[in-house]
Structure formats: C-alpha cells, structure tokens
Amino acid sequence: MAQQATPVRRARLGRALGPEPTAVSGVVLLLPDGEETSERRPSPLWATASVRALGRRLARAGREEGLAVHVVHYRYRGWNGSAAHLARDGEWAAEEVVRRYGDVPVCLAGNGMGGRAALRAGGHEAVNSVLALAPWLPEEDVAASPEPVKQLVGRRVLIVHGTNDARTDPELSFRLAARAKKANRDVCRFEVHADGHGLHQYRDEVLALAEDFVMGVLFGRALARPVRDALAAPPPLGLRMPLASGFGRWR
Question: Of 44, 36, 34, which is closest to residue 13 (Cα–Cα)?
Fold first, then answer.
C-alpha cells in the first residue's frame, strides 16, 4: 500500500480583528506566547488567548487610520532550539503583509515566547517597530552566542516586563535592552512594579502604553511624554522606566 505524504505545515494569518479597513496603511502582527520545545500544532483558541485583549484594543484605536491587526498562527507551539520556528513564522508573516498590502509599516507585537519571536524577526525590511511584552529569553551562557540585537537597528522598540514575573526573567530583558540600546537609541523598556507574567495587575496601563506606542510608530501620532523620555534617555534610565504610577496620569 502506498504511503501518504505527511502534510506540510504552514503558518497563516488569522482574519483581521474587527472590520478590516478598505485601505490598509499599517499592520500589527500579533505573535502569541509559546513553549520552549514543542512540535504540537497550536489550537486556534490557545493561539489567540495571550494577545486577544491587546489586539482588540489596537484594532479599535487604529480603525480610522487604516490599521489591520492579525494574529500569526504558528506551525508549532515551540521555539525548538536553532529552528526558531516562532521567529521564522514571524518573518513569513511580515512577508505575507507585503504580498497582501504592499509597502506599509509593520509592528511586530508579541508576549512571552512571542515577544522573543517579535524581537528576533524584527529585522525584516517591512518591520519598523517591535513591541515585546514579558518576553521569554534564554539564560545567558558564556559558551553560547547571546540573543542577537543587530536586527533591531533602525526599529523603534518597546519592552514591558513585570518585576515579579516568575516565568520569564525580567533581568534578561533588561540586559538584552541594554545591549540593543548601545546600537539603537530608539529602544525603551518599562517595568511594571510587582506585576507578574500576564501583566494583569496594571492591565489598563499596559494596554494604554502599547496603544500609544503603536499609534505613534505606525501613524506618526505624538507619543506620550513617558515614551518620548524613555526613548531619548540613555541606559539605564530608558530601560527601567516605572509603569506602576499609572500611565494614563502621565499624559
């Protein structure tokens, strides 16, 4: 009996969140959380759970500007070592945006392992900005190459991390941001005091910060003062900006 070929797995973009604009002038690609190692295919609900609130907020905020927001559906749940499947799927998604919408700016927005994927895939020529929420990063090993940052040159980068995150080490995102800011001053990082991995305690402030950043980098809206100050500040001031005071009150 002839054996059937194993189907080739392909990444895909989910349907645009909210009404898709008639004329798209900017795109956010949402990269969900994942696992360090897994060759399982993510379920649709599992894939969108970690980025659903952010996606809805951005879709509403950017509707009149022509913003399209898509979730990237990965081929695998896991990063899977040197295969870096989630980052490769992020790069594919940026290329798919070019095919669908043409030359429009793209923001990669991810959380957890999706935050790592957004940072790694940020070098695609269509990407002008990266938003990484509580990014999972590998422990530093003197025998291994550090997580790359050169691909972030020329991009505006915002990292947000809770100081009590027990799943992804906030100190590692600080160190990566410090290395990235040496080559690219447009890198900033906000710390959410006493918040955990899901950033639930200050959810409204985190979403407001993300919205302000994305609307500014994609459509040229004026950035709120905390973001402007963080982008302009040298490290460590631009990398340990507190968010616990309430972002909305800083405008």
Answer: 44
| 20: its two tokens | 């898709």
Q: What is the spatial distance between Cα 69 and Cα 88, in angstroms, rounded to a whole number?
A: 19
pLDDT tens digits for range 188-207: 999 999 999 999 999 999 99
Distance separating alpha carbons of residues 69 and 21, to the nearest angstrom: 10
Between CA 186 and CA 208 the distance in angstroms is 19
User: What are 214's two structure tokens?
Assistant: 């994305």
CA-based nearest residue to 85, from 45, 117, 40 = 117
Q: Quote the pTM value.
A: 0.93
Helix (H, G, I), strand (E, B) or coil at 185: coil
Both tokens assigned to 142: 């003197």
Using alpha carbons only, how large is the chain's radius of gyration in Å?
A: 17
Distance CA 46, CA 151 (A): 29
Residue corresponding to tokens 């609130």 = 53
The owner of tokens 């040229």 is: 220
